[in-house]
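Schema walk-through. Below, the input block comes first and the output block second. Nothing else is stored per chain. Lengths vary across the set, and this one has 393 residues.
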Amino acid sequence: MPKNITKAVKVVHQVDIIDNGLIDIPMLQIMQADGVIHAQATIPEIDKELALKMYDTMQYTRILDERMVAAQRQGRISFYLACTGEEASVVGSVAALSDQDMIMSQYREQGALAFRGYSTEQFMNQMFSNELEPNKGRQMPIHYGAKELNFMTISSPLATQIPQASGYAYGQKLAGQQAITLCYFGEGAASEGDFHAGLNMAAVLGCPCIFLCRNNGYAISTPASEQFAGDGIASRGLGYGIRTIRVDGNDIFAVYAATQQARIIALAEQCPVLIEAMTYRLAAHSTSDDPSSYRSKDEEARWADKDPLQRFAAWLISQGWLEEQLQTKKVESIRQEVLQELKRVEKVPICKVDEIITDVYDQPPWNLQEQLAELKQHIAKYPEAYPKTSGRL
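--- output ---
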């Protein structure tokens, strides 16, 4: 592909301002909201085993979300972010990857971890910030990370993972790896400067990276109509010279097929690809959010009819791959597993307070040691101000 400075351009002799309305980016949809495949569509090659793994992961994520939102309401954890309504965008994409591909997540991609084998115990250890959690309880809940699963630890600041993904993918390219990086983010994160820097870097340097935007219509409470005037996020990829596709994010087949093709291109041509998945979060932005203040029940109901879990279940039943009675038992089994692990793990002690200054320097410097000593004195003086399990001296 020729670079912009040498690319031949059409020459005109009258003012010809390009109208955004002339850009009409289509949306790939293979499966309709009722689970029926479009007559003109082709289902990607997915066997029964993979299809059921994808469905089970979506179901597991939905149940995990339900239980942990309830746990936060009960004061058992401090914070949670649900993926409810967006499961197909996450599970459909991770299923199309190689296990060697790196995942850079925003914070709503627990389904990607579950698909790769992250256990209920690991989820709970992280959310309860106990001594078994690899980050030693120094992260907020839902800030997962798993080196063995090629899942980069989540950061709180919005969009930081986007330029990091470009850099990591560039490293994969230099190392000659047969692997790519997949970077998840929401359309709200696309309003951050890191989005533009990251995409431009990937385009210019030819980084084998898939940027997957979950466009769920809201950046917390700000609707997309108040975030940008252009044609969604897909049009921005084209502006940076990046191969781009828009998909129905509630259609797991569309997401899978798009990611599968994007990976082939990214790896073969050593270049980035942008996927905009049009979806909707049926839950609140987080447990600190009240969506009723900025969207209507009618709107939520319309999108509930497009629920990706129900859509996929309808197709699986039509194939004879999913028995409703057995699935009901499986759902209850998952629910009990999550609840039992929650009850067990919340009793695991947190790390000793000394751990708060480790893992940064080979030897903690004097100023951190001094601050730690002051903290210990404070906890000892006011023990009633701290939970019984905190401040293990």
